[in-house]
Design a protein that fits this description.
- The relative contact order is 0.22.
- The chain is built from five helices and ten strands.
- Helices cover 30% and strands 29% of the residues.
- A hairpin with a 2-residue loop joins strand 4 (58-64) and strand 5.
- The protein has two domains: 2-16 and 132-178, no CATH class; 20-124, D-Maltodextrin-Binding Protein, domain 2 (3-Layer(aba) Sandwich), CATH 3.40.190.
- By secondary structure, the chain is of the alpha+beta class.
- The radius of gyration is 18 Å and the shape is elongated.
- Strands 1, 2, 3, 6, 7, 8 and 10 form a seven-stranded mixed sheet that branches.
Length: 180
C-alpha cells in the first residue's frame, strides 16, 4: 500500500521508497484572471490552496540556484489531501503546492500549468510502502519493494524506466503480478 507523508507507524512494516518533490501549480483560467507571477514574492497577494491546519497564514519557501525566498501566504482553501488540492486548483480556485507527479498528470490533461518553474519549493513528501506485519519476511514482498524502489528512484532519469506517476498508477497490477 503506497503512503505519502511521514510514517511513524511500525517501522518494521514500513519502507521509504522515494521522496517526492513538490511543485507550484494553477489552472490557466486562474492565472488569466489574476496578476502575473514572476517571482515568489508575487505569491503573497494570491489565493492559495494548501494544508493550513486552521492557521491564518503559512510560509512557503522556494530555492533557485543559491537564492532562498520565504513567502507568507494566506488560505483561500484549507485542504490536507494533495489530489483534492490539485482538483481545486484545476477548478480555478487558487494556487497550490502539490507533489510534482500529481501536477504533471494534470498538465497532461491540460488542467494545471506549472507556476515559477525555475523556482523549486523546498517541500517534499516521502513515499512509503506499508504492509501487514505477517508479510514481514516474505521474499516476494522484498522483491516487490526492491522493484518499486528502483523504478521510482529512476524517475526523471534518461532511459530510467517508468516514472513515479506511472508506477503509482500501476501499483494494483504490480501487486497482482507479485502475488503479495
Amino acid at each position: 500500500m503506497p503512503l505519502y507523508g511521514a510514517s511513524e507507524r511500525n517501522p518494521e512494516n514500513t519502507r521509504t521508497l522515494a521522496v517526492a518533490p513538490y511543485g507550484l501549480f494553477a489552472s490557466q483560467s486562474y492565472l488569466d484572471r489574476h496578476p502575473p507571477i514572476s517571482s515568489p514574492e508575487d505569491l503573497a497577494g494570491h489565493l492559495v490552496i494548501d494544508t493550513f491546519h486552521g492557521a491564518d497564514r503559512l510560509s512557503w519557501e522556494f530555492v533557485k540556484d543559491d537564492e532562498r525566498v520565504l513567502v507568507d501566504v494566506h488560505p483561500r482553501l484549507d485542504v490536507n489531501d494533495s489530489l483534492m488540492r490539485a482538483e481545486s486548483a484545476a477548478a480555478g480556485i487558487g494556487l497550490t503546492l502539490i507533489p510534482s507527479w500529481i501536477g504533471d498528470l494534470d498538465i497532461g490533461r491540460a488542467c494545471l500549468v506549472p507556476v515559477l518553474p525555475d523556482w523549486r519549493p523546498i517541500r517534499q513528501a516521502p513515499l512509503n510502502a506499508l504492509w501487514p506485519a505477517r508479510r514481514r519476511s516474505s521474499p516476494r514482498l522484498h522483491a516487490f519493494l526492491d522493484f518499486v524502489s528502483k523504478a521510482v528512484t529512476k524517475s526523471g532519469k534518461e532511459g530510467g524506466g517508468p516514472g513515479e506517476k506511472d508506477l503509482l498508477l500501476a501499483l494494483p497490477q504490480l501487486r497482482n503480478r507479485f502475488l503479495l
